Amino acid sequence: MADELTPLDATQLGAYFALMDVAGLLRHAVEQQLRDVGDLSYVQFQLLARLGLNSPTGSERMTDLADAVVYSRSGLTYQAGLLEKAGLITRAPSAEDERGVTVSITEAGREVLGRVLPGHTEVVRGQLFTTLSQSDAGVLADLLSPVRDHMRSAPPRSARRR
Amino acid sequence: MADELTPLDATQLGAYFALMDVAGLLRHAVEQQLRDVGDLSYVQFQLLARLGLNSPTGSERMTDLADAVVYSRSGLTYQAGLLEKAGLITRAPSAEDERGVTVSITEAGREVLGRVLPGHTEVVRGQLFTTLSQSDAGVLADLLSPVRDHMRSAPPRSARRR
DNA sequence: TATTGTTATACTCTATAACTATA
DNA sequence: TATAGTTATAGAGTATAACAATA
User: Fold this and answer.
1) N or C: at which end does chain A have fewer Cβ atoms within 10 angstroms?
2) Cα dist from B122 to A71, A155, A159, B114, whole Å
3) Region B133-162: what's the mean pLDDT?
4) B40 in a domain, yes or no?
5) Which pLDDT does position A4 carry in this prediction?
6) What is the pLDDT of residues A13-50, one digit of tens each?
7) Among residues A99, A100, A117, A114, which one has the least CA distance to residue A30?
8) Which residues in chain B are closer than 8 Å to A132, comparing Cβ atoms?
9) CB atoms within 10 A of CB A93
10) pTM for this entry
């Protein structure tokens, strides 16, 4: 396709910047609440939420967590170290694969997650869903979920020219 | 009427997480390109873009830039220092208000901006507008622009807690 | 050999508080 | 007194590369 050199039009630019601005402001607001109430960064919250809400067992492998939440393995090791030191997760050698490490949320981790969630919800509602109706939320989710899938399947590596 | 204690429903949660995930992945992809091509961080790109594209004069005051782009004044001083050292902006005492500082983009700054923009566009199109149609982009912008306005209507970050 | 995860390290970014100067 | 901006500083987070252990 020859549109590689075509600039984004005004509508696309507007959508792009609105998306980035809203997400940035929202993350900033949410991070403050997480820090105040649970002494958590957003990444740490993501990790706890994934273990405590998304995973039926409360456990997941390091690599899967890294792929889902963080952009490098050493970054995850760092964050997991903090969470473990705080007693919110445990790390144990994986059963099937001796190289792997299984991360599990602890009771204390679930407690912190439960303590943080109501205020978190309140911030998100105040920032986002004061302006967006229920059907707006549905439209937004329907628009962005496929984008996320596309991004996760085709890494940004594709944008790097040789 | 949103109950303060009611958790977000599944649709709202989906919209929230999709928004945060997409913006995070997109920012990551875009930052890589900006770093590779122009040796710029995303914040630095925002500053240059605001001066070079949004402002007719190519100049703006520090406080206005801080409110628009960065979350603390010292953060902006740091970033402006880097950009100035790189020759991409200049800082000069403001004419009307001797306390103020006027930031202006230089020719070199415009050159870098111009050099970075095509690849930037390419990444955004590949990540975002491969999945979103033209009308999708319009819907997204229409949904999120009011959200941004609402978020920005809160007290500016530069005026907080002094 | 490839993959999992950790470590060592270096660097970027951000925020808070104290400070100077102008209004 | 209040505001604009800088500085000093400290802390959090991230990525890269080298490494050990297992597949």
Assistant:
1) C
2) 22, 14, 7, 13
3) 82
4) yes
5) 61
6) 999 999 999 999 999 999 999 999 999 999 999 999 99
7) A117
8) 15, 143, 147
9) 10
10) 0.92
Tokens linked to B81? 């220092």
How many domains is chain A partitioned into structurally? Answer: 1
Q: Which residues of B touch A20 (CB under 8 A)?
A: 23, 26-27
Task: Report the percent of chain B where pLDDT is more than 70.
Answer: 92
A92 inside domain: yes
Within-domain flag for A132? no
Q: What backbone torsions phi and psi does residue B5 show, to the nearest 5 degrees? A: -100, -5
Cα dihedral across residues B41, B46, B49, B55: positive or negative: negative
Report d(CA A119, CA B162) in Å as an integer: 25
The owner of tokens 């930031």 is B103
Average pLDDT over residues B93-111: 96
**Residue B42 belongs to some domain of the structure:** yes
pLDDT of residue B102: 97
Task: Give distance CA A1 / C1' D12 (Å).
Answer: 43
Residue B71 is predicted with a pLDDT of 83
Of A20, A139, A145, the CB nearest to B23: A20
Task: Answer yes or no: do A159 and B132 touch at CB < 8 A.
Answer: no
Query: Does the distance separating the beta carbons of A151 and B127 come in below 8 Å?
Result: yes
Q: What is the pLDDT of residue A15?
A: 97
CA/C1' separation B162–C19 (Å): 13
Å from A87 to nearest chain B CA? 26
Q: What is the CATH number of the domain that holds A83?
A: 1.10.10.10
Number of alpha carbons in the 13 Å side-chain half-sphere of residue A20: 20
The Cα A133–Cα A90 span in angstroms is 40
Residue B104, classed as helix, strand or coil, is: strand
User: In which order are the strands placed within the sheet that holds A89-93?
Assistant: A59-61, A101-105, A89-93
- Structural domain that includes position B41: 26-128
Cα A59 to chain centroid, rounded = 17
